[in-house]
Amino acid sequence: MSAASFTPSTASVLLSKSLKPAAPKTLGFGSSLSAFNCLRHLRPRLHMDAAAGGGAALAARMVFSVPSIGRSAPSLDFETSVFKKEKVTLAGHDEYIVRGGRDLFPLLPDAFKGIKQIGVIGWGSQGPAQAQNLRDSLAVAKSDVVVKIGLRKGSRSIVEALAAGFTEENGTLGDIWETVSSSDLLLLLISDAAQADNYEKVFSHMKPNSILGLSHGFLLGHLQSLGLDFPKDISVIAVCPKGMGPSVRRLYVQGKEINGAGINSSFAVHQDVDGRATDVALGWSVALGSPFTFATTLEQEYKSDIFGERGILLGAVHGIVEALFRRYTENGMSEELAYINTVECITGIISKTISTKGMLAVYNALSEEGKKEFNAAYSASYYPCMDILYECYEDVACGSEIRSVVLAGRRFYEKEGLPAFPMGKIDQTHMWKVGEQVRAVRPEGDLGPLHPFTAGVYVALMMAQIEVLRKKGHSYSEIINESVIESVDSLNPFMHARGVSFMVDNCSTTARLGSRKWAPRFDYILTQQAFVTVDKESPLNQDLISNFLSDPVHGAIEVCAQLRPTVDISVPPDADFVRPELRQTSN
To answer: Where does this protein hold substrate (predicted)?
Structure first.
C-alpha cells in the first residue's frame, strides 16, 4: 500500500518526519553528509522517561498508521547476460533477484569470463568459507579458474589454509601482495579496521581493469569520510552473505545433496570499467551457494549491516537477554530457568518459529494469557528499542561508528607510549556460567520454552529495527535479510549451540566492538523505561499491537521464506568458528 492511500494521524506525521534527515550540508568530511544525522543531540527524542511521567504517554500516541518505505530508495534493477533475473513483489514493492542452486554452476565459466585467478585476502570469518565454496563450485563447473589464498609470511592462518587444501605447491596459497598483484578478481576479506589501514597498498598492487570484491561496504564508508574514492581503473563489486562465514560454509556443505543450501546474499556494483561487473558479482554469489541474491548499493549495505550487527543480530540481543535475566531472577525465578527463558527461548524456539513461519506464528502460538503478557512487553519495549536503534543508525550513516571501529582497531596495539587494549572476554560473568550449566544438561534438539514476555521484547526489537530501515529507504529484501533471516537462520543457531557470549567474544571485530558498545544501551533503556512501564501497569498501546498484527512485512517475510532452501542449518554443540587470531593455543 502506498503512503498516499491513507491519511496518517498527526503523531504518525511527526514521527515520520523525525525519521527523515534534513537537507545535506557539507560538514568538512570531504563528502556530503547530513548535519541532522551527525548532530543527533539536536533531534527530537523518543524517550519514555518514567520520572517525568509524560514520555510514555507521548510514545503511546506516536503510531505508524500504515508502514511504508520512507525515503526514496535507489533504483536496484540490473541486467545480466548469464543468469535469469526474476521479479518478486514484497509488501507491494517490486524487486529483482537471481535464484541460486547447484544446477547453475555450469554457468560459472561464462560469469567469470576473462578471470584466471580469484585471490582471497584474509582468513577470518568469511575468508575460509568463501574460498572453499568458490573452489568447490568451480570444480563442479570444470572451470580452470584458480582460487588462491594470500597471507602474510608467518601468519597463524597458514596452517588452517593448508588443512583446507590450499597449498603453495598447487598454486593456491601464496604471499599476500603477490596474490593481490596477480589476481583478476580480488576478494578483500580482511577485517574492516585492517582494510582502513591497508587500502592504499592494496590499490597500488592491483592490476588495471581487475575487479575488487568486497563482502562489506565498510571500506566505502571509510573512504567517504576521508573525501576519497576507489581508483578509477578497477571495477568494484560486493557480494555480502547475510550470515557469518561458518554459516556460509556449513549450509553449503549441507546443501550438496539437495541442489544447494546456503546464506542469501546481497550484491552491489559500485564501479564497472568494462561491463563485466554484474555477471561476475552474480557468479560469485551463486558459487557461494546463495539461495537468492538481491541488489543493493555499497552505501546501503554498510549502513544496514553495521547497524544490524549493533541491533538484532548481536548487540541488542546481548543487551536484552542480560536485562531479562536480571529481571527474572530478581522476581524470584531460578537462575537456570531465567537463562532458559531468555537466551534459550530467543535462540531456540523463537528463532525456529520465525525462520519457518514468521513472527505472527510466535504470537499465535501463545495462550490468551500469554498474548496479554506478550502485548504488555511489546507495547512497552517497542519505542525504547527504536530510540537506541535510531541513534545507532545515524551514528553509522554519518561515519561516527565507522571511525570508532578504525580507532578501536588501532588501540589493539601499543602506540604513543600507551599499552595495547585488545577486546576482553565477557563469558566469565555469572550469567554465562549459568548458561554453560544449562547447555551441559540440555537434551539434544531442545529449543527451550516459548516465554511470552521474552517473545514480546524480542519481536518488538525486530519490528523496531525493520521500521527504522524502512523509513531510511532500504529495500524489503535488505530489511528482511538483515533484520530477520540473518538473525534466525545464521547467528542465533550458533548462539543456541555455544551461547550468546561465545558469539560476542568470537565473531568479526566490527561486530564484537559494536556489541560491547551498544548492548549496555539496550540493557539500560529496557530496565529503566520498558520494564518500569510494565510494572506500573500503564495502559497498552493498542494501536501499536494492531499495527504489528497487520504489518505488510509479514507477507514479505512469507515470500522470502518460500525462496529459502528446505534444509535448516545444523550446528553441533562443539561448533567451532573461532578465528585463528583468537585461538589461545595459536603461536
So the answer is: 367, 508
